[in-house]
Amino acid sequence: MIDKKALCEKIQEIYPDIGQCAIDVDVEYDDEKKAWVVHLEKDGKRLSTYLEEEEAGACMLGQQCVSLGLQVSELVQNIKEKPETRQSQGV
């Protein structure tokens, strides 16, 4: 099984501006779905995606990270574009 910390480090290696843009990354293994869940969080906004075990393993071996990079890139873009929840101000 892939080490959680190593997978986080690999994601940050593929997409280095995660840390530079103050976007936190965390991963956890979902036994029920048999897949890794990648969580990205910034300013209270949180998005997640699943990575199949085989894909995460191939990425860790340096064989194929394209899909992982695309998914994480899309999540990062969504977090940057997702409007913040604002409270209504009384007039």
The side-by-side strand order for the widest beta sheet comes to 1-2-3
Give helix and strand order, one letter per element, not per position: HHEEEHH
Q: State the share of residues found in helices, binned by percent.
A: 40-55%
Determine the CATH topology: Signal recognition particle alu RNA binding heterodimer, srp9/1
How many helices in DSSP terms? 4
pLDDT averaged residue by residue: 79
Number of DSSP-assigned strands: 3
Structure class: alpha+beta
Distance between the termini: 57 Å
Uncertain segments: 86-91
The number of domains = 1
Strand content: 25-35%
C-alpha geometry = globular
* CATH class annotation: Alpha Beta
Question: Keywords for this structure?
Answer:
single chain; 91 residues; alpha+beta; Signal recognition particle alu RNA binding heterodimer, srp9/1; three-stranded antiparallel beta sheet; 4 helices; globular; disordered C terminus
Question: Can you summarize this structure?
Answer:
The protein has 91 residues and is α+β, with helices and mostly antiparallel strands.
Can you describe what's shown?
The chain has 91 residues and is of the alpha+beta class. It has one domain (4-81): Signal recognition particle alu RNA binding heterodimer, srp9/1 (2-Layer Sandwich). The protein has helices spanning 4-14, 17-20, 53-60, 66-81, and strands at residues 24-30, 35-42, 45-52. Strands 1-2-3 form a three-stranded antiparallel sheet. The longest helix has 16 residues, at 66-81. The N and C termini lie far apart (57 Å).
